[in-house]
């Protein structure tokens, strides 16, 4: 009903504004829902005080975990299986970013701080 009213209003506007031709094709509207996969990994401790932290996989599937410096240089990469944990060490004081990928799709990003 609303679609018919909208089409009639559009047809009226087009005929009163000297439009030469109009094609109105009603059809389904596509809506893509973005789903947020919550917390694929857990970092501990964050912030780190000695440059070492542990990354825990909280995913039900394998993920890739990447750590970058502020210039975007890759410093660390690992493949984490479900429930697996790995230690990241030798990070100097500063801020870093991390990115988690699942099936070639970035599913989580965050910040790592070493004080």
- Strand sequence of the main sheet, in spatial order? 4-3-6-7
Q: H/E series, N to C?
A: HEEEEEEE
Please state the overall shape, judged from the principal axes of the Cα atoms. Answer: elongated
Distance between the termini: 62 Å
Proportion in β-strands? 35-45%
SS summary, helix count: 1
Examine the secondary-structure arrangement and name the CATH architecture of the domain at 41-114. Answer: Sandwich
Instruction: Report mean pLDDT, rounded to a whole number.
Output: 82
Question: Which stretches of 5+ consecutive residues score pLDDT under 50?
Answer: 16-20
Structural class estimated from helices and strands: mainly beta
Q: Explain this structure to me?
A:
The chain is mainly β and 115 residues long. The protein has a domain at 41-114: Immunoglobulin-like (Sandwich). The protein has one helix and seven strands. Strand 6 (94-102) and strand 7 form a beta hairpin. The relative contact order is 0.19.
Write the layout of secondary structure elements.
Layout (H helix, E strand, L loop, with lengths): L1 H15 L24 E4 L8 E5 L5 E6 L5 E7 L4 E4 L5 E9 L2 E10 L1
Antiparallel strand pairs: 1-2, 2-5, 3-4, 3-6, 6-7
In short:
This protein has 115 residues and is mainly beta. It has one helix at 2-16, and strands at 41-44, 53-57, 63-68, 74-80, 85-88, 94-102, 105-114.
Provide the descriptors you would attach to this structure in a database record.
115 residues; mainly beta; Immunoglobulin-like; three-stranded antiparallel β-sheet; 1 helix; elongated
């Amino acid at each position: 009903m609303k679609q018919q009213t909208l089409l009639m209003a559009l047809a009226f506007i087009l005929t009163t504004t000297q439009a030469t031709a109009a094609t109105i094709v009603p059809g389904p509207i596509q809506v893509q829902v973005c789903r947020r996969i919550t917390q694929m990994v857990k970092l501990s401790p964050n912030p780190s005080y000695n440059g070492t932290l542990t990354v825990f996989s909280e995913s039900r599937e394998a993920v890739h975990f990447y750590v970058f410096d502020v210039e975007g240089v890759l410093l660390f990469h690992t493949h984490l299986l479900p429930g697996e944990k790995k230690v990241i060490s030798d990070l100097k004081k500063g801020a870093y970013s991390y990115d988690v990928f699942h099936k070639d799709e970035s599913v989580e990003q965050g910040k790592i701080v070493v004080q």
